[in-house]
């Protein structure tokens, strides 16, 4: 079966593409796109891999499944098409970045403790991906207005294989695991070789329980620099 994905990832995941589960997954997804409204657009299903080749990965951020609203999902976890408003989780991610890097403490927002102008932020996040940030959802497709609708169909097995390949073949990567789902998905990362950062999910329901103030973006850059790598320009 021919899968259109970045060549470096295609080599690592070749055995997965040959497995019966992937054939079943492909048939399911193909039928869903024919019969239902499904996100992201087909050309963006493997966008996280295409924008961030295997050898270029320096940071991994794990999400759950794509946004299920119109024009939102663009193949990168937490990111959205720039024509739509920023979702709350992405707003909170930007707030945390500002809190870590802003010196304007007198202008802090009372709720989050962070100065923030949503209109000034771009939600696409491809600028992170091209710096080596793999923005990977566990499930790469979803039916419109039905969160989690493509879970348990095989995507998780494929993305587990991608994380396992990074853990075993690369060194000194940063994995950001936000929320219990991401933490479970990252349980088998080799923490003797990589930095694993865990926090609450940036959703408004949990961000105040440990995401705000986690310091992950600065910690990631400090780790990268300490190992002779370029820091990520988050802002």
General description of the model:
The structure is a single chain. The chain is of the alpha/beta class. It has helices at 7-12, 14-17, 20-35, 47-51, 88-101, 126-129, 155-169, 180-185, 216-226, and strands at 38-39, 59-63, 133-137, 142-143, 174-178, 195-199. A 4-stranded parallel β-sheet has the order 3-2-5-6. The chain has a two-stranded antiparallel sheet with strand order 1-4. The radius of gyration is 17 Å and the shape is globular. The N and C termini lie far apart (40 Å). Residues 105-116 have low confidence and may be disordered.
Write down the overall geometry. Answer: globular
Q: Number of helical segments?
A: 9
Rounded to an integer in angstroms, the radius of gyration calculated over CA atoms is 17 Å
Strand order of the largest sheet: 3-2-5-6
Question: Roughly how many Å apart are the termini?
Answer: 40 Å
Proportion of helical residues: 25-40%
Give the SSE string.
HHHEHEHHEEHEHEH
**Biggest pleated-sheet summary:** 4 strands, parallel
Q: Determine the oligomeric state from the structure.
A: single chain
């Amino acid at each position: 079966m021919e899968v259109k994905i970045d060549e470096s990832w295609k080599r690592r995941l070749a055995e997965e593409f040959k497995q019966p589960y992937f054939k079943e997954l492909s048939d399911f997804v193909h039928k869903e796109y024919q019969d239902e409204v499904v996100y992201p657009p087909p050309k963006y299903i493997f966008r996280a891999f295409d924008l961030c080749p295997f050898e270029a990965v320096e940071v991994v951020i794990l999400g759950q499944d794509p946004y299920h609203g119109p024009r939102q999902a663009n193949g990168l976890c937490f990111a959205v098409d720039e024509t739509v408003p920023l979702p709350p989780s992405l707003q909170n991610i930007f707030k945390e970045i500002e809190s870590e890097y802003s010196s304007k403490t007198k202008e802090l927002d009372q709720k989050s403790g962070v100065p923030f102008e949503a209109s000034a932020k771009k939600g696409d996040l491809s600028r992170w991906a091209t710096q080596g940030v793999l923005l990977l959802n566990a499930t790469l497709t979803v039916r419109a207005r039905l969160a989690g609708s493509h879970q348990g169909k095989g995507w998780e097995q494929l993305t587990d294989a991608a994380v396992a390949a990074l853990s075993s073949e690369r060194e000194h990567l940063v994995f950001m695991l936000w929320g219990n789902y991401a933490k479970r998905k990252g349980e088998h990362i080799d923490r003797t070789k990589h930095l694993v950062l865990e926090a609450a999910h940036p959703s408004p329901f949990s961000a105040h329980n440990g995401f705000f103030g986690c310091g992950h973006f600065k910690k990631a850059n400090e780790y990268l620099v300490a190992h002779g790598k370029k820091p990520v320009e988050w802002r």
